[in-house]
Design goal:
The protein is of the alpha/beta class. It contains ten helices and eleven strands.
């Protein structure tokens, strides 16, 4: 006698895992990199292709955790979240934790890999991949604002969360500033294009620990970082002032009662994105 329930009988195993919270898929362009998504169940009135939000993890690589934090937001706002996973030690150094934050490392262009992930996901799923919203926190916040400098035309919005190290739009050497970007990436930032992208900067008002970001001699240190501020709050304020000096509008959110937590500030990020999705 079969013990299969009626609910189980109507599920297609493949389709079941290609909707809702998906497994991690490898990137076909580089199988060292993977991604997962949350895709809401279709309802009447949904667009043919859902708007896309990319949530970029930080040093701890908590891609699935970030994806899950946005599940209810996706259902309510009829959009898809994509969370890339870039493993540590991806190059020759098995101890490397930070290279993705700076976009280029040992011939790997992490910004272009993200665009490959988006294009691949848009081919497989009902996603509008032409433009997307990008949220990154901590190391992901570093990635997010540097990605903005190179690909503003691909972003419908960017939320820059608590980066420990910032790149200002200035003549300082990369990555303190944007000098030399053309030699490294083949392009320089277009201030005019960046001005067209809605920008949020977000950090908790209790995000004041400095043990991780004040590490002279570390692999992700460059002399001059200390001049941008002591805490992540101070450094993000420095980046805000730099953006505003170039005519780039910024929504700055200092979230009360929150330390260094990308999930804890996510509701404020969702508020920023929801307003743009409604608009």
């Amino acid at each position: 006698m079969s013990t299969t329930t009626s609910n189980e009988r109507v599920k297609d195993p493949l389709l079941y895992f290609l909707s809702g919270a998906t497994p991690l898929f490898v990137c076909r362009a580089d199988q060292r990199v993977s991604y997962c998504l949350y895709i809401p169940q279709r309802v009447e009135g949904d667009p043919e292709r859902f708007p896309l939000i990319v949530v970029q993890h930080g040093t701890a690589r908590t891609a699935v955790k970030y994806r899950d934090a946005f599940r209810q937001f996706c259902e309510k706002n009829r959009c898809v979240v994509l969370a890339p996973l870039i493993p540590a030690g991806i190059g020759d150094d098995p101890e490397d934790l930070h290279s993705f934050k700076f976009l280029s490392y040992q011939g790997i262009r992490f910004d272009l890999l993200l665009l490959e992930l988006v294009a691949e996901a848009a081919r497989r799923f009902p996603i509008d991949g032409e433009k997307f919203m990008l949220y990154g926190f901590s190391g992901g916040g570093q990635f997010a604002h540097r990605f903005l400098y190179l690909h503003p035309e691909r972003l419908s919005a960017v939320s820059i969360g608590a980066p420990g190290r910032i790149t200002q739009l200035s003549g300082d050497r990369w990555w303190l500033g944007t000098q030399g970007m053309k030699d490294i990436f083949g392009a320089e930032p277009s201030i005019e294009a960046i001005r067209r992208v809605p920008v949020q900067m977000v950090v908790g008002d209790q995000d004041v620990e400095t043990w991780e970001i004040n590490n002279p001699g570390g692999p992700n240190w460059m002399d001059g970082v200390e001049l941008t501020g002591n805490t992540r709050i101070e450094r993000l304020r420095t980046l805000e002032a730099n953006f505003r000096s170039h005519g780039i509008d910024v929504r700055f959110d200092l979230v009360p009662g929150v330390g260094h937590s990308g999930v804890a500030v996510a509701p404020v990020v969702e508020d920023f994105m929801a307003g743009l999705l409604r608009g």
